[in-house]
């Protein structure tokens, strides 16, 4: 993805509405691109920071944004693990069905 595409996806990331494929590309790009990482921090501050300041709450931008990125990485890992397990179950099911059919034919 280009930086322009990543910048357009920042609001969706902040709203937790990116699908797993786009989330993975987004996180990988942010980790490698300082400009996009800075833009993410700016947009996070403007969205979350202003809301918190209006409510009189304090916050740590760095800690919370870091936590949000870690949650995204965790979500990607869990999704990929579930997908891998599902594929393995499919393969096992095909073998079991194949053996059952062979057993019935003999």
Provide a descriptive summary of the structure in words.
The chain has 4 helices and no strands. It has one domain. The N and C termini lie far apart (54 Å). 87% of the residues lie in helices and 0% in strands. It is mainly α and 106 residues long. The radius of gyration is 21 Å and the shape is elongated.
Total helix count?
4
Largest sheet at a glance?
Answer: none
Class computed from helices, strands and strand pairing: mainly alpha
Low-confidence spans: none
Give the overall average pLDDT. 91
Our Rg estimate from Cα atoms comes to 21 Å
Properties at a glance:
87% helix; elongated; 106 residues; mainly alpha
How would you summarize what this structure contains?
With 106 residues, the chain is mainly alpha-helical.
How does the SSE layout of this entry go?
Layout: H1 3-14, H2 20-32, H3 34-55, H4 61-105
Helix pairs in contact: 1-2, 1-3, 2-3, 2-4
